[in-house]
Amino acid sequence: MNMVSFRAHHVCGNCKLTLFLLFQNTIMAIYKFRITFEDFDDVVREIDIKSNQTFEDLHKAIHRSTGYNAEKPSSFYVSTDNWLKGDEIAYLPNERKKDRVVLMENSKLSGFIEDPHQKFYYIYNFDRPYDFHVELVKIILDADPNIEYPFLAKSTGEAPKIMEQNSPQAVDPRGAAATASEFDFLNEMNFVPEDTDELEAMGEMGINEKERDEDEENEEDEFGDEFSDDDNFEDDSHKDDY
């Protein structure tokens, strides 16, 4: 058996945890982490990684699978079963918090595993943050000598594209859902490229400038005719007086 399960019902909870901690601190094992986007449940990655490797190794392995630039300020947080954030393990922290966090490159995974199903809340790129759930799902005793760890064991779904600066063709995943649900009036109106000339000729009120001039000219003619009729009316009145 190459997978260790800590679900024996005859062992009390505290004893089970003690045995687990003793085991995982004395034997180099393989951790299988399940990584999901908080807002994209259909995108899943499973990564096998050695227990003595670091959070930086895991961070970079995640983004070899997503295609994202790993050189962004990011953090793992030891979390509860409800994903409440605890101690922070940071990569490229800013000056303000550099002295109050531990660094990924100095932090072995085994030093922060306190539960057989340990969870980490993970924020990638604080400038344009994306949130992940990272959960330990298996502990494997025997490393495969033919595998280089970290190893991408499973990949489901395509990671959403990130809108980088100076990259207008990229898609911002936070705006993608809203954009897809909005009313696309150009498509609904059967818009074609030839219509751009007409759109450019539209004024502020959506009226063709030529049509606007013709309408104004017609209004002036009508006003002039009315004024002429009034003059004739006044002349006829004066004639009656005389």
Automatic annotation (TrEMBL):
Coiled coil: none annotated. Residues 212-234 have a biased composition (Acidic residues). Residues 30-160 form the Plasmid pRiA4b Orf3-like domain. It comes from the Bacteria. Residues 194-242 are annotated as: Disordered. Pfam families: PRiA4_ORF3. SUPFAM superfamilies: MM3350-like. This is PRiA4b ORF-3-like protein.
